[in-house]
């Protein structure tokens, strides 16, 4: 197998489902799921995923560029690694998802939708992660990097979303995210159905959803703007030197969630509103029947505004930057 992405998009399993180089053994587990293990014993285990949303192609191209040299035997591997293209069906069609957004379905939430390809895909990914972590050493380091792009443009073109986590984040993990060129980190305060929350909650992995640019078709991405991310991945996978961080990411935490409750939902933001746009206290953000969403703090920043989600799903997050003085509106 010479090209992981093209093999996955073909919908066919490779003629040879396992193999080895001078540095590693690889095994095609299922469509878009590849296990890679160094020939020497290591204490690090990494899940590297992309393509959870089928129209987010830049991370898929980045993943393919760092994986193929390993398959060709050109590079050593420093991690026990599970490589995942999350939603091959959506990748083939160039759509965010076919029927359901699978990044809302982890942690068993797939049981709440129709039994179909997407529910079964999430179950397979959950089971594959469980098997991967179970066979490792009890003291191995566990990381999960899930690479995405945002629907909208952003004041921070490269940022990370950290799942709710009661444990301290490892300093080595935060240092790597800074070296990967992330300009901001957003910290969730409640559980969710994302892939990274699943790996963090159930397996204790240090995990992050990396948002790299804006969603564009295959071939339309300027990957040079993600060179720091590729260099940081090369350091993690091959043992290359980690690039120096040019700045410290700004830290935000989620202040409130805007949820679409019904077909009457209205988001009071233009389609051109960028991620991390600031709104002053008292601004009416959205309304849904008698429900109103206002800016509660002195200043809040919007993330992932999307009025077109299904009822019951997140239509946006409002953030507070850590270190800013805040004062909530009286209830």
Automatic annotation (TrEMBL):
Residues 44-236 form the Succinylglutamate desuccinylase/Aspartoacylase catalytic domain. Binds 1 zinc ion per subunit. The active site is at 211. One of its GO terms (biological process) is L-arginine catabolic process to L-glutamate. Zn(2+) binds at residues 53, 56, 148. Its EC number is 3.5.1.96. Its cofactor is Zn(2+). InterPro entries: AspA/AstE_fam, AstE_AspA_cat, Aste_AspA_hybrid_dom, SuccinylGlu_desuccinylase. Coiled coil: none annotated. CDD domains: M14_ASTE. Keywords: Arginine metabolism, Hydrolase, Metal-binding, Zinc. Pathway: Amino-acid degradation; L-arginine degradation via AST pathway; L-glutamate and succinate from L-arginine: step 5/5. The keyword Metal-binding applies. Pfam families: AstE_AspA_cat, AstE_AspA_hybrid. GO terms for molecular function: hydrolase activity, acting on ester bonds; succinylglutamate desuccinylase activity; zinc ion binding. It catalyses: N-succinyl-L-glutamate + H2O = L-glutamate + succinate. Residues 248-321 form the AstE/AspA barrel-sandwich hybrid domain. It is an enzyme of class 3 (hydrolase). Belongs to the AspA/AstE family. Succinylglutamate desuccinylase subfamily. Transforms N(2)-succinylglutamate into succinate and glutamate. This is Succinylglutamate desuccinylase.
């Amino acid at each position: 197998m010479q090209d992981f992405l093209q093999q996955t998009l073909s919908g066919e399993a490779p003629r040879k489902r396992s193999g080895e180089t001078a540095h590693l053994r690889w095994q095609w587990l299922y469509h878009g799921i590849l296990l890679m293990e160094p020939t020497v014993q290591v204490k690090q285990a990494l899940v590297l995923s992309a393509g959870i949303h089928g129209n987010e192609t830049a991370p898929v191209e980045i993943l393919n560029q760092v994986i193929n040299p390993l398959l060709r035997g050109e590079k050593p591997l420093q991690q026990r690694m599970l490589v995942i293209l999350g939603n091959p069906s959506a990748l083939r069609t160039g759509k965010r998802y076919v029927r359901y957004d699978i990044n809302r379905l982890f942690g068993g939430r797939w049981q709440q939708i129709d039994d179909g390809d997407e529910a079964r895909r999430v179950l397979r990914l959950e089971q594959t992660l469980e098997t991967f972590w179970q066979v490792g050493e009890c003291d191995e380091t566990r990381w999960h990097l899930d690479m995405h792009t945002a629907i909208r443009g952003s004041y921070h073109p490269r940022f990370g979303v950290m799942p709710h986590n009661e444990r301290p984040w490892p300093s080595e993990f935060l240092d790597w995210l800074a070296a990967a060129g992330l300009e901001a980190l957003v910290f969730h305060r409640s559980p969710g159905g994302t892939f990274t929350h699943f790996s963090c909650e159930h397996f204790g992995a240090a995990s992050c959803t990396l948002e790299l640019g804006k969603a564009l078709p295959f071939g339309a991405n300027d990957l040079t703007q993600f060179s720091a991310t590729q260099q940081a991945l090369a350091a993690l996978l091959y043992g290359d030197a980690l690039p120096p961080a040019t700045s410290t990411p700004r830290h935000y935490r989620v202040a409130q969630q805007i949820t679409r409750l019904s077909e009457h939902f209205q988001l009071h933001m233009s389609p051109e509103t960028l991620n991390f746009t600031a709104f002053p206290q008292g601004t009416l953000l959205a309304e849904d029947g008698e429900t109103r969403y206002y800016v509660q703090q002195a200043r809040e920043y919007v993330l992932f505004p999307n009025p077109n989600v299904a009822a019951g799903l997140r239509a946006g997050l409002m953030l507070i930057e850590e270190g800013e003085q805040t004062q909530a509106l009286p209830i």
